[in-house]
């Protein structure tokens, strides 16, 4: 992970990676001192152009990797969920590159940071680390291709419906503000508010402060397939 920004993250207790990775006893010993940190929601611990000093595995929460469009809107590359790592960071470690995007905590997030030297050492002989790296690469490629398809073929209304369905909890609630949704979709809050208003009028959703309730999830799904 890139150099920590002052006030963005604070040190927490060490969390073993064995909960997510099938590591050898030797590797577990080497990873005993791995740093675990916690990030508050909406913090940006990694900025474009930062030097990456290590790989990181999300233990709890979610990180979002994004960039900015020429108009100043955010464009999401992919999300990093528990048990996953960032392929951009891995690429920077192995090729001595600067980080090409920004990373933000979507919610309170806990991660383990593995130093670059140790990650490279483990990659040579630990199948769990090799699989983690390959999974990160294939997952990122799939997510990027999906995002490109959405940008090319889906209307903003369809992309919004898709986001709501993917972010909804078991009780059909989405805990996101209009600005957070706009940032995720690379749009403006005013445009998102207008489309949400249309969905409310159609009886598809109900809105409240910082939350959206899906009243007809199946109807939202049909909008995507149209």
Give the overall pLDDT as a whole number: 84
Major sheet characteristics: 4 strands, antiparallel
Oligomer: single chain
**Low-pLDDT residue spans:** 3-15
Helices, by number, come to: 8
Radius of gyration: 19 Å
For the record, give the distance between the C-alpha atoms at the N and C termini, rounded to a whole number.
41 Å
Strand segment tally: 10
- Structural class from helices and strands? alpha+beta
Spell out the helices and strands N to C: EHEEEEHEEHHHEHHEEH
Shape: elongated
**Percentage of residues in DSSP E strands:** 15-25%
Report helical residue fraction.
40-55%
Biggest sheet, strands in spatial order?
1-2-7-3
Domain HTH crp-type: 154-218
Domain Cyclic nucleotide-binding: 29-140
Protein name: Crp/Fnr family transcriptional regulator
Pfam family, one: cNMP_binding
Topology (elements, then pairings):
Elements: E1 9-11, H1 25-30, E2 35-39, E3 54-60, E4 63-68, E5 74-80, H2 87-95, E6 102-105, E7 109-115, H3 116-125, H4 127-153, H5 156-167, E8 173-174, H6 178-185, H7 189-201, E9 205-208, E10 211-214, H8 217-225
Antiparallel strand pairs: 1-2, 2-7, 3-7, 4-5, 4-6, 8-10, 9-10
Helix pairs in contact: 3-4, 5-8, 6-7
Describe this structure as you would to a colleague.
The protein has 226 residues and is an alpha+beta fold. The protein has helices at 25-30, 87-95, 116-125, 127-153, 156-167, 178-185, 189-201, 217-225, and strands spanning 9-11, 35-39, 54-60, 63-68, 74-80, 102-105, 109-115, 173-174, 205-208, 211-214. The strands form three sheets. Strands 1-2-7-3 form a four-stranded antiparallel sheet. Strands 5-4-6 form a three-stranded antiparallel sheet. A three-stranded antiparallel sheet has the order 8-10-9. The termini are far apart. Residues 3-15 have low confidence and may be disordered. InterPro entries: cNMP-bd_dom, cNMP-bd_dom_sf, Env_Response_Regulators, HTH_CRP, RmlC-like_jellyroll, WH-like_DNA-bd_sf, WH_DNA-bd_sf. Keywords: DNA-binding, Transcription, Transcription regulation. This is Crp/Fnr family transcriptional regulator. Residues 154-218 form the HTH crp-type domain. It comes from Amphritea pacifica.
